[in-house]
From TrEMBL:
Record keywords, A-Z: Membrane, Transmembrane, Transmembrane helix, Transport
Tagged with keyword Transmembrane helix: yes
GO molecular function terms noted in the UniProt entry: transmembrane transporter activity
Subcellular location: Cell membrane
Protein source organism: Megasphaera paucivorans
Membrane topology: Multi-pass membrane protein
Gene3D superfamilies (UniProt xref): MFS general substrate transporter like domains (1.20.1250.20)
InterPro entries: MFS (IPR011701), MFS_dom (IPR020846), MFS_trans_sf (IPR036259)
Domain Major facilitator superfamily (MFS) profile: 18-425
Pfam short name (any one): MFS_1
Protein name per Swiss-Prot or TrEMBL: Sugar phosphate permease
Cellular-component GO terms for this entry: plasma membrane
CDD domains per the UniProt record, alphabetical: MFS_ExuT_GudP_like
Length: 431
């Protein structure tokens, strides 16, 4: 059977019918998640109550919604239809994102950001642990996830200049930041209906594979699940209490703290440091994001080719730590952009490699539940990072101390990554 399958042709088909639509979902999701970072450059002037501390807390409130709804959503999708669940996620987060344009108090700001996180909860665990293992073999997964996760820098490449322009415009009688929230909510609602007809949650349901390809894909998936189960069959509870899973939680917590603390405050810090207009800041941020996108592709292809994971992740974390730790010492706008590039590459490049790790030793509902646990608890760092930076700025007048803390967190992530086992059941080579 395998000899009659053109593997390259099959991969190209999956790029079009799986990676591409999921890429679009992720671009829209990240735009709607972090557009508040760009809106913050002007909304703080229109809303007197929006202090740095309240802004940081509200930005991070998104991840409290994640925390409460991540695991139930992932387990539900693992048992039923993953693609319909992703479509539901998109539709509801699109509606809630538009509501951000009309918040009038700290309480409303907190509630809407919390609801946005609750709506998006389980999106990435369903992609990583349910959808992708059914569609991509273990030795393809790091590259496939990395290719999809180029959506994160791409969303900034699109979102940064778009936000910079929109913030200086007044559409529909709204302030620029209000227009930003409303306009960026619309794609999520529209693409919901495109996605649900485009993507199927397993090969046997697809219309674009031949019968031989369907059988081949289903057999490969079953074989990999059996290999994992033969090494150690995890129940959902065992997966949620596994030491390796909790080590991954800690690694990703410090990573997410640095990633999201940096993401939510980066536009404002660069604007204050440089004195550039919002539109110039938006276009300037395209540069580090393009470089981060290239880094993500290189890291993912390298990991899939060599089978190595630990050092791929750790070196990226160390690079990000250098960027964050050095940023407070920079006074030149152009040199600060160089350090922003270090951080952007460091916190983005190994993301696809990282999310291929849990499915090397977990499968089925156990993988979905554990991935959701990792994402939900670790993303509390997304609450801590922005809030901590907001408090540091409120009480010290700068974010310098906050960036030192974030840099230390990335170093901890890198060192812990190197303590993971070198081999997992589905690895074809040492990692």
């Amino acid at each position: 059977m395998e000899n009659s399958i053109n593997i390259k042709s099959l991969y190209r088909k999956r790029q079009i019918h799986i990676i591409l639509p999921v890429f679009f979902v992720s671009v829209i999701a990240f735009l709607d998640r972090v557009n508040v970072a760009y809106a913050g450059m002007t909304m703080t002037k229109d809303l007197p109550w929006l202090s740095p501390e309240i802004f940081g807390a509200g930005a991070g409130m998104f991840f409290l919604g994640y925390f409460f709804f991540e695991i139930p959503g992932a387990l539900f999708a693992a048992k039923f239809d993953a693609c319909k669940w992703i479509a539901r996620i998109m539709f509801t987060w699109g509606l809630v994102c538009g509501l951000l344009a009309f918040v009038q108090s700290p309480t409303q700001f907190y509630i809407v950001r919390f609801l946005l996180g609750a709506c998006e909860a389980s999106l990435y665990p369903v992609i990583y642990a349910v959808l992708y293992p059914r569609w991509f073999m273990a030795n393809e997964r790091a590259a496939a996830i990395s290719l999809m996760l180029t959506s994160l820098p791409v969303s900034n490449i699109i979102g940064a200049p778009l936000a910079g322009v929109l913030l200086e415009m007044h559409l529909f009688g709204l302030q620029g930041w209000q227009s930003l929230f409303v306009l960026e909510a619309i794609p999520a609602i529209i693409f919901t209906f495109v996605f649900v007809f485009w993507v199927k949650d397993r090969p046997s349901k697809s219309q674009w594979l031949t019968d031989e390809e369907k059988v081949y894909m289903e057999n490969v998936y079953k074989k990999e699940q059996d290999e994992i189960a033969n090494a150690k069959k995890y129940t959902i509870w065992q997966a949620l209490t596994d030491k390796t899973v909790w080590r991954l939680v800690i690694i990703y917590f410090f990573w997410a703290t640095g990633f999201l603390g940096f993401s939510f405050w980066m536009p404002q810090v660069l604007k204050n440091l440089s004195g550039w207009s919002t539109s110039v800041v938006g276009f300037a941020l395209v540069i580090p994001m393009i470089i981060a996108l290239c880094g993500q592709l290189v890291w993912g292809m390298s990991s899939s080719r060599t089978g190595e994971k630990r050092w791929h992740v750790a070196t990226a974390m160390f690079l990000g730590a250098i960027g964050l730790g050095g940023a407070p010492f920079i006074s030149s706008p152009l040199l600060s952009l160089v350090f922003v590039t270090f951080v952007a590459v460091g916190i983005n490049a190994a993301m696809g490699v990282w999310w291929s790790v849990p499915t090397t030793f977990l499968s089925g509902a156990a993988a979905a539940g554990a991935t959701a646990l990792i994402n939900s608890l670790a993303n509390l760092g997304g609450y801590f990072g922005p809030y901590m930076l907001g408090m540091v700025k409120t009480y010290t007048g700068t974010t310098d101390l906050g960036y030192f803390i974030l840099s230390g967190g990335l170093c901890i992530s890198a060192l812990l990554m190197l303590t993971l086992k070198k081999t997992m059941p589905t690895d074809k080579n040492n990692i």
